């Protein structure tokens, strides 16, 4: 100890390790470390209070509604909440149990109660998701039993409709009797459950979602690549031209960006359709005959062309903002040290544009994955994306649970890609503007 | 100053809600909305002093369901399709409407007998009958003109692209009709696997010639541009193009798909009394007949038919343009909401799967 006290480095050593009597203190004698923590805590609290309005806004307008929507993908109490007795019977018995008298009584009483409460449509809709054609079974039975049903219930219900005895119906009702279900996710990847509850693929002519997921990601990747190929030279030109000219060019980039999405999409229809401007010009020039007009829209080509055009500014702008900051002397130095222009571009210039490229690619890809209006208008049959199915379930079939499951899968896939991007490139390495 | 402004705005909002001197009607927009404003809203406001706010939606059933689910209903009367009216009624989202409370026909026939079959439901009253019909551009065919649904599928005799809606409801039935199935047996066929397969097989024969449309304005545009030579289209829209815009189009009534639009009132509507007033007023004999002056949709009351006169241009006789005329009804398929409530999801998936496969 005595030696340590003499050693001029001892005080530093003890401070660094944070123990011993050489502890640093503030002017009024409190330990420095604790005082620091306290003052930082105060600053943090103040900072938190400053962002609190924004946080509350984001939570109320974004997190809560999206959370509620996503909750529908695994939670649907359409059956369980309106058919409590038969749900209790399902909970008490093993899968595969044949319905006994208790089950039929519970079912009949629930049906009567639900029909009187006008909730039978909700029940039928829920069961119909897993077994098409059963919605009218519930609503029609409901209309007949409103006001009461006489025992024996089994015979009475079978008399109304024989389908009540179908084992598949009972199996599906068992699935629906718990509000938490994975069935919507199964359906979203073209899977279903058979009578015994095993997961299997749906019939071939019903398969659609997996194909569309792949197509969505593939087309988004193609569109991202195209915006890069088209946007990189433009961004470079913008970044290297004198301010006057580059500002003029920038307006040309931004003008379509400020134009309504629908206007741009319909303009492409005018240009690309078979009786459209481009085909007219080709026929007029004699490149193609009148009967061989090119089919450039209402298919995948149309989707790719229109979406590449619409998303191009999202690639150009981040690239441009990064390119402006690249010091031209680096490339000059590389050239003067003997690099060819290609090597100088590849080894010196291009790597410096990566943060802009990463940001642009990410923006374009994520926007493309969720695109909806453009493929709906110009996609025809082969250019549809998964978002069109989500929209169809939201507004057409009103199966919001299914829409939520598809959306959740899409969100999950995008998050996985984001994570991959972070691992491979690094999110810190991103420059949005 | 600012606070005063906010306060007065908020109070103004409350005052409006409390006075109940208005009714919010959610409808489909476009020429259809105009016809409702002219035929229902203006005389309604003139007679009762209740202001009518028209709100346009792509499909009013979507906001209706969203509002009921969120327990924040802002619309009073919604104009929806039959299948949605039945579904929403079964789900308890709509108030029941007693047919006896609706005004009787001028000759005293009670409303229950005056409306066409299927027009009165537990929770809904139909206002119009409309059709999805085949229409063609007369400049595209030099020889014979097409006359039947089968001609739509005959691209040899009648060359050119075809426009079809991108949904199973208004395509499968047409394929069956064109394949020789009588209108009355269409749903029996569609209920079986063989019938569905037969419809898809028939659609396969023209799949590469089809331009799929989604919004009602698209087929008219495709036809006018010459992008398609024949298409199915809503009869009111194509009438508008033919008469108001003098487009060289003709209608084929064979294989017409008939549908109704219905007025419904959601539970917890903010102005229930005004909503019921409006609904009764808008579906009386004279109002339904008046609407035909502005759009070629048929009135849902039999007693309105004789009152249907000239189009607003003063020269076009509306009778033959009604989807309810005898010629139009000869081989027409009526929408079957029960069937579609059961099978819409399944057939939509299959249809999309068929579309995606090449």
UniProtKB/TrEMBL annotation, chain A:
Coiled coil: none
Keywords per UniProt: Cell membrane, Membrane, Transmembrane, Transmembrane helix, Transport
Ranges annotated as spanning the membrane: 47-67, 217-239, 246-263, 304-322, 356-378, 398-421
Membrane disposition: Multi-pass membrane protein
CDD domains: TM_PBP2
Record SUPFAM superfamilies: MetI-like
Biological processes annotated in GO: transmembrane transport
Subcellular location: Cell membrane
Major localization class: membrane
Domain ABC transmembrane type-1: 213-421
GO CC terms, sorted: plasma membrane
Family (UniProt): Belongs to the binding-protein-dependent transport system permease family. CysTW subfamily.
Protein name: ABC transporter permease
Organism listed in the record: Paracoccus hibiscisoli
Highest classification ranks of the organism: Bacteria, Pseudomonadati, Pseudomonadota, Alphaproteobacteria, Rhodobacterales
TrEMBL record, chain B:
InterPro entries: SBP
Pfam (any one): SBP_bac_8
CDD domains reported for this sequence: PBP2_polyamine_RpCGA009 (cd13589)
Gene3D superfamilies: Periplasmic binding protein-like II
Keywords, in A-Z order: Signal
Signal peptide positions (record): 1-20
SUPFAM superfamilies: Periplasmic binding protein-like II
Protein name: ABC transporter substrate-binding protein
């Amino acid at each position: 100890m005595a030696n340590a006290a003499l050693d001029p480095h001892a005080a530093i050593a003890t401070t660094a390790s944070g123990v011993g009597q050489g502890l640093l203190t503030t002017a009024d004698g409190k330990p420095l470390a604790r005082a620091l923590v306290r003052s930082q805590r105060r600053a943090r609290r103040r900072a938190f209070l400053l962002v609190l309005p924004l946080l509350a806004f984001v939570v109320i307008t974004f997190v809560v509604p999206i959370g509620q929507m996503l909750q529908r993908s695994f939670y649907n109490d359409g059956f369980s909440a309106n058919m409590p007795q038969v749900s209790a019977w399902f909970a008490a018995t093993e899968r595969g149990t044949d319905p006994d008298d208790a089950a039929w009584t519970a079912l009949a009483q629930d049906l009567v109660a639900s029909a009187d409460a006008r909730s039978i449509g909700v029940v039928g809709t829920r069961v119909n998701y897993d077994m098409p054609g059963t919605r009218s079974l519930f609503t029609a039975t409901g209309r007949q039993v409103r006001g009461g049903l006489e025992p024996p219930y089994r015979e009475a219900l079978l008399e109304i409709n024989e389908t009540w005895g179908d084992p598949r119906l009972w199996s599906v009702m068992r699935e629906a009797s718990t509000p938490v279900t994975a069935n919507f996710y199964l359906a979203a990847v073209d899977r279903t459950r058979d009578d015994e509850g095993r997961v299997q693929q749906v019939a071939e002519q019903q398969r659609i979602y997996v194909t569309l997921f792949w197509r969505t990601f593939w087309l988004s990747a193609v569109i991202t690549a195209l915006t890069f190929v088209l946007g990189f030279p433009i961004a470079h030109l913008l970044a290297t031209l004198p301010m006057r000219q580059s500002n003029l060019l920038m307006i040309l980039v931004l003008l379509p960006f400020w134009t309504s999405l629908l206007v741009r999409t319909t303009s492409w229809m005018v240009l690309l359709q078979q009786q459209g401007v481009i085909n007219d010009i080709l026929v007029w020039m004699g490149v193609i005959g009148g009967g061989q007009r090119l089919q450039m829209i209402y298919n995948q080509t149309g989707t790719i062309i229109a979406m590449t055009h619409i998303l191009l500014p999202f690639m150009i702008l981040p690239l441009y903002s990064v390119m402006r900051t690249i010091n031209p002397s680096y490339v000059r130095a590389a050239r003067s040290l003997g690099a060819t222009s290609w090597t100088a571009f590849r080894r010196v210039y291009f790597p410096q544009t990566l943060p802009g490229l990463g940001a642009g690619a990410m923006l374009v890809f994520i926007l493309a994955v969720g695109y909806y209006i453009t493929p709906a208008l110009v996609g025809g049959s082969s250019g549809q994306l998964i978002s069109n199915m989500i929209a169809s379930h939201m507004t057409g079939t009103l199966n919001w649970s299914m829409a939520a499951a598809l959306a959740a899968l899409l969100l999950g896939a995008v998050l996985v890609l984001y994570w991959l991007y972070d691992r491979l490139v690094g999110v810190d390495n991103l420059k949005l503007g | 100053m600012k606070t005063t402004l906010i306060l007065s705005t908020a109070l103004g909002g409350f005052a409006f809600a409390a006075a109940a001197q208005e009714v919010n009607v959610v409808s489909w927009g476009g020429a259809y909305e105009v016809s409702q404003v002219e035929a229902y809203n203006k005389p309604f406001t003139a007679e009762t002093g209740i202001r009518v706010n028209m709100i346009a939606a792509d499909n009013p059933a979507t906001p209706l369901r969203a509002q009921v689910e969120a327990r924040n209903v802002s619309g009073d009367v919604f104009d929806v399709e039959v299948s949605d009216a039945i579904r929403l009624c079964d789900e308890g989202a709509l108030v029941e409407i007693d047919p006896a409370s609706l005004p009787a026909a001028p000759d005293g026939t009670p409303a229950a007998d005056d409306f066409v079959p299927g027009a009165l439901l537990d929770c809904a009253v139909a206002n119009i009958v409309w059709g999805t019909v085949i229409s063609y551009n007369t400049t595209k065919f030099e020889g014979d003109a097409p006359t039947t649904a089968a001609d739509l599928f005959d691209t040899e005799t009648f060359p050119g692209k075809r426009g079809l809606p991108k949904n199973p409801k208004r395509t499968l039935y047409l394929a069956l009709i064109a394949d020789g199935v009588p209108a009355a047996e269409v749903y029996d066929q569609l209920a079986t696997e063989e019938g569905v397969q037969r419809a898809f097989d028939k659609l396969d024969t023209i799949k590469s010639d089809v331009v799929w449309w989604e919004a009602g304005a698209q087929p008219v545009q495709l036809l006018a541009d010459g992008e398609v030579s024949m298409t199915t289209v809503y009869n009111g829209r194509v009438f508008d193009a033919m008469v108001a815009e003098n487009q060289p189009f003709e209608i084929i009534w064979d294989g017409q798909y008939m549908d109704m639009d219905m007025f419904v009132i959601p539970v917890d509507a903010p102005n229930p009394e005004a909503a019921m007033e409006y609904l009764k007023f808008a579906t009386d004999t004279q109002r339904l007949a008046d609407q035909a002056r502005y759009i070629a949709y048929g009135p849902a009351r039999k007693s309105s038919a004789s009152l249907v006169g000239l189009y607003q241009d003063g020269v076009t006789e509306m009778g033959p343009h009604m989807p309810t005329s005898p010629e139009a009804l000869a081989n027409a398929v009526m929408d079957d909401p029960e069937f579609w409530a059961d099978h819409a999801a399944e057939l939509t998936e299959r249809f999309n799967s068929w579309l995606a496969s090449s």
